[in-house]
Amino acid sequence: MPELRKDPITGRWVIISTDRARRPSDFTRVTVEPSGARFCPFCPGNEDKTPPEVLSYHTDGLTHGGRWSLRTVPNKFPALRVEGDLDRQGEGLYDRMNGIGAHEVVIETPDHMATLASMDERQVAEMLWAFRDRVLDLKKDKRLRYVMLFKNHGEAAGATLEHPHSQIIALPVVPKRVQEELDGARKYFEFKERCVYCDILLRT
What does the alpha-carbon distance between residue 32 and residue 37 come to, in Å, rounded to a whole number? Predict the structure, then answer.
């Protein structure tokens, strides 16, 4: 079971995920080989090589049937797990809790060679709808307090699979830097009675 531990000096929560040590690429630099050079679990026909999907869109609309156009599946090597209780407790100077959360992979397209730049408007819109649908679903879990969307593109960014995909991580805590930004925005509003983000947009 992953664990979250709080740094008593900085106040940051850190994920300790021993399960991810099972990833074949850990501690070695893996070269992301070009298409056709190795097996891809995200390509059509290999659906049984990923965990069961939690969301899928299909060519006949946002329902099952037809060929899939986007799939969302739990990460095979998750940093956090949905099952269990937070069990938050103090151990002397330290605070810890079970690594409860969610870690999902959005397989953005069946096309192994596509990129965000080459996708048409419908495909990009579908990807954004998938983010929205998953955030709304994860929001129903009262244990979770923050959802983060991110995309590793290319070997240098840490992507170990060439097939276009994004990731979603839902946390039981609000990251310290995010909380600092929220606090700063609140103070700005209290002082100026205006939204700082609106002011930034109006002045750029």
Answer: 9
Q: Is 4 exposed, middle or buried (0-12, 13-18, 19+ CB in 10 A)?
A: buried
| Active-site hit among 64, 103, 163, 165 | 165
Instruction: Render pLDDT for 55-111 as a digit per residue (tens, 0 to 9).
Output: 999 976 555 556 899 999 999 989 999 999 999 999 888 899 999 999 999 999 999
| Catalytic annotation present for 165 | yes
| Tokens (6 digits) for 193 | 């009675």
Q: Which among 37, 34, 32, 29 is positioned nearest to 154, based on CA atoms? A: 32
* Residue carrying structure tokens 């397989």: 107
pLDDT at 204 over 80: no
The pTM score is 0.81
